[in-house]
Amino acid sequence: MFTEKIEADDFPKMPPKYRELLLKVLTIQCDSELGGPHLYVEKWILNAPTAEDQMLLAKTAAEEIDHHRKFVKVLRELGVDLSHLIHTRSSDRVLEIFHEPLETWADMGTFGTFIDRVGGYHLEDFSDSSYLPVARIIPRILEEEKMHIAHGIRILRQLCETEEGKAQAQQSLDKTYPRALDMFGLSGSKRSEEFKEWGIKRRTNVEARTEYMAEAREVISGLGLKEPDPLRNRRYL
Asked: Which fold has domain 14-236?
């Protein structure tokens, strides 16, 4: 296991494998931070049911774009410019979860509750990263992510107050939950193991997904919903 901590000036001296892995994962993170805003800004900020919901979504979008900006800055220090990603279409995002529109308000709720929660897990994995410029920006970003998740839960709780809303929430969950599990990547991923070996991330795909599922089950149960079949999407096995 690699246990040293390095700065931007140390990056050129690192082995090619380390440099390849770090650039790969940060590129995906930069792209993903824009995935949510590019899905719901046009669709939901002005169509949300209350002024408070509109305000919270606008705040979330601004913070996610700022997260993207922070990761772009980290990569720019390494000679990589990803500023063009702000114009990438949703259908061209790296992660498939960002390809499909959020069609209902329940979709907005499950996105915040479960997809943003996956994002939080990925960010947590950077919190003690061997690459210090990344580790430094994570605490503030994680605090903001917790608020994004809390808004998603609030949406679902309000929906679940009625039978009709609860049915909509369950329908959205059935679609979203398997896709959330797929976001952790393949269980047998060699790259996942390498991220951990080099101290870039602290968990493998399997470890992170297992912890996520335990947490998600408590949330689902608390909402009075049923956990969808976690094996429905078998691509990650």
From this structure: Ferritin (1.20.1260)
